[in-house]
Amino acid sequence: MDNTLKKYRYWEWRTIIVLFVGYALFYFVRKNLGMAIPAMEAELGISKTQLGVFLTIHSIIYGFSRFANGLLVDRFSKKKIMVLGLILTCTVNLLICFSPKLNGLLNLLDAEGKATLGLVYLIGSLWVLNGYIQGMGVPPCLSLLAHWIRPTELATKQSIWNVSHSIGAGVVVALCGFMLNRFGYSAWYLCFIVPSLLALLGVPILWFGLKDSPSEVGLPPVEKMDQVKKSDSEPNPLDNIDGSKYRKIINKMVFANPYIWIIALSNFCVYVIRLTILDWGASFLTETKGMDIAAAGGILATTEMLGGTMGMLLAGWLSDKLFKSKAHRTCFFCIVFATLSFFLFWKCQSVTLSFVCLVFSAFFIYGPQALYGVCASQQATKFAAGTGNGIVGIFGYLSSVVSGVIFGSMADAGGWDSVFPVAIIFGIVGAIFIGLMWNAPADGYEKLNKVIADTNK
To answer: Which residues have C-beta within 8 Å of that of residue 68, sequence separation ≥ 6?
Structure first.
């Protein structure tokens, strides 16, 4: 029995670490555009509105891709889907890097070296394609974590994996800021080629480091690990889920589950603030705070890696220890304080205080960013974790309609002071939504057992 538990712990932590590294590298080739935006504006003459359209369509496609790939990972190899996704997203970023070189074949640059609509459409189309491919990253991670981590520990340990978001985003914005400061805005293409080559190093790590389920290494399902000390023969109501039962679980645990839709709506509001910071942070800091691109990149990197990392880890720990694995309660408090911090960031005149408020914004916003995946996995159970998170992901990235093209157009027309009040309203609404499920249970396994019992009648 002790050897089984020891082996389980080894593979559990191996899976968490490999997924941590792999998904951080996905962020290298996704959050690089935000840092390239000021340089692409200056060198190629692409407007905020046009770039906002890129960001919006990319994020919407990404959200739907998360849903589509969520369905796939619940039925097929999670490892293979994630590895293929990392290879393809690096390939697309390399194509964006070299796209102006096609000017001889296509009319992509005018006489002054500025982008024609042809180049705008080409880069935009590639970024949209990247949005779909990026949707092959999160679903395998969330499904694997649900298969390898016990429900009573999921918030804490999935929050550790979620730090990969902050590390990946923080490293890439710092790297891109350094390169643009060192080589100038004319080297905007480095923001695509360098992260791509670094991210490709993750392919063998994922391929050789992951297993799709405990059964591949001779371990019982994760929900039986608490039974190992008692009896290996104790019956498990979650065994032998056939096709018809699986379809009923998907319907009852996801599509007809009101908690999934509450989480999704709140996630939409949270992502308005999160994407505003990530996608427009460099532009806002350079245009309104008078920073150079390297300083803006350094501040955003510190915000992500310090505020985001600490916020996710503390939120996961509080959910399991203080709120008895009811992660949705932690999310409520996080959204309230994130919205307040974002308001103070907007109003602060001091650069130092602005930096502090931005760190606190990330600290609190990354709590729900990390935990909404946990909430969806807990309420949908591991058998529908990919699908449940797919719906939540769609709503999160539909928010880019607001944070991308709408906020880009508003900033072009009326400046950043027209953007912040709208983002703050979304934060307030997000807190109200998640507050509606305050009394929800910690997970949906009791409901799952009832669904299985009804199916067997």
So the answer is: 135, 390
Domain span holding position 102: 2-209+241-455
Provide the β-strand partners of residue 109: 115
**Does 226 map to a domain?**
no
227 domain residue, yes or no = no
Query: H-type helices in 74-116, by residue range?
Result: 78-98
Tokens for 274?
A: 């999160």
Question: Mean pLDDT in runs of 10 for the chain (457 residues)?
Answer: 81 93 94 84 79 78 84 84 95 90 70 74 88 91 86 78 84 89 88 95 94 84 59 47 70 88 93 80 77 78 79 82 85 93 86 85 85 84 76 82 81 82 92 93 80 72
For the entire predicted model, the pTM comes to 0.71
d(CA 236, CA 35): 50
What is the Cα–Cα distance from 296 to 35, expressed in whole angstroms?
9
**Structural domain count, the chain:** 1
What residues contact residue 452 under an 8 Å CB cut-off, 6+ apart?
237, 238, 241, 245, 249
Neighbours of 371 (CB within 10 A): 29
Residue 221 lies in a domain: no
Residue 435 domain-assigned (yes or no):
yes
> In terms of residues, how long is the chain?
457
Query: What CATH number does residue 81 fall under?
Result: 1.20.1250.20
Burial 384-399 (b: 16+ CB within 10 A, else e): bbbbbbbbbbbbbbbb
